[in-house]
Amino acid sequence: MMSRVLTLTAVLGALSAVPARAQDAAATRSALMEADRAFNRATTARRTDGWMEFIAEDGAMIRSTGTITGRAAIRQAMAKAFADTSFSLTWEPDQADASADLGYTNGHYRARFRDDKGNEAVRTGRYLTVWKKQADGSWKVVRDIGVQDPPPAGQ
Hints:
The chain is of the alpha+beta class.
């Protein structure tokens, strides 16, 4: 009888942990979505400095021209982009997921700028950002990749 009570107690304990893990996973996904939105707000408000606020020390941006690795190189690349006052970049995450201290967000972005002829241009696309939880509990970007949407038909 005592072994049945212990077994039942162990099973009930394990079952009660499942909702707690599901709640933790939901809270982590929510935290990542908010981190991504805060990243967007900071970049909109402070441009390069806002972007850099969310980049981890070992961060990298994967682009069609190659991978930009390290905070100094990323700052240089983003400062060049934001030096063009007509340039703006906004995005919205569509999804997030995480396991322990690594997670990702993916969503869609919109970049506005003036082309070589001075005309306003817009590029849209999709992105995937990999986040790593830092010692202070914050999430920082360790990898970022964007893929441009194809041009509209007829362009």
